[in-house]
Amino acid sequence: MPTPTYVALASNTLSSTTATVTFSSISGAYRDLVLVVNGKTSANQFTGLRFNSDSGSNYTMVRMYSGANSTTATATYGLFTTGDTTADTLSIAQINDYSSTDKHKTFLVRSNITANNVAGHAVRWANTTAITSVSVEAISTTWAIGTTFSLFGIVS
Amino acid sequence: MKLIETKTLSSAATSISFTSIPQIYTDLFLTLSLRDTGTNADNKVFNTVLSFNGSTSNFSSRALYGQGTVPGDLTAISNFGGWHPDNGATANVFGNTSVYISNYTSSANKAYSMDNVTENNGTTAFASIMAGLWSNSSAITSFTFTTSGTNLAIGSTASLYGITKA
Q1: What stretches of chain A adopt beta strand conformation (E)?
Q2: ipTM of the complex
Q3: Does the beta-carbon distance from B163 to A110 stay under 8 Å?
């Protein structure tokens, strides 16, 4: 039997604006996680990921991008995407080996905002703890109604 | 992720299409491996053009690319679907493209993420990441990748997968 991929774990479609969407109690049964977010924000601001509610300066990044680059994300977030108020954006994060306890966690992002920029970047969360929650935060703004958030598990 | 359909060209053709796409998934993921039968002496590549539901209208996109040692930035490139190698590229080498389309059945505009690379054992090859948006409220029921060159070569393939959210 083929190994399943993209096992649907949780999803959320916003019926009201909010700054943060959190997936918690994430099962450690998978190898990697994939997060897919499609929608808009209420202002053209950065959005970021936080793991296990960690708001410390524990996120470092290397990024390539084309287009505008508004405010600079801080080390207290793992950069996710630049939100846009007018164009639906699509951003995909692959969080590798998220349940391991012997390494820092890395995730790779492809973010796509036709009105603003296209980017690929890598982020390291300097913590060996297994990831059990992922917060997707619109920094200094909110996610718009209708924005969808989908979390998938990749079986090893 | 579930395989919906795979297509492999047994004869050269101008395009590869998927039609009557099931509307039972949330997102779509597409992989392509393409080569052209024509020759583009300048770049060793041809453009691939994307259409949804037979339409080439209301697309917007932008790309970041590298070509050899030269980086570049493309904006307002409409329904550009990446590049694929021409017949002058290294023999038996095909390019690769992956496309992720989120919420393809929704009434919102359709955003997609595309990664693309051509292959050539030489100094001319392209790699790109691209953001795309089809500003149309219709569900996607078909899409087509068409060459701007001569024909897509025998052996060009495309596989369509469906992904369902929780």
Answers
A1: 7-13, 20-23, 32-39, 46-51, 59-67, 78-82, 89-96, 105-113, 117-125, 134-138, 148-154
A2: 0.92
A3: no
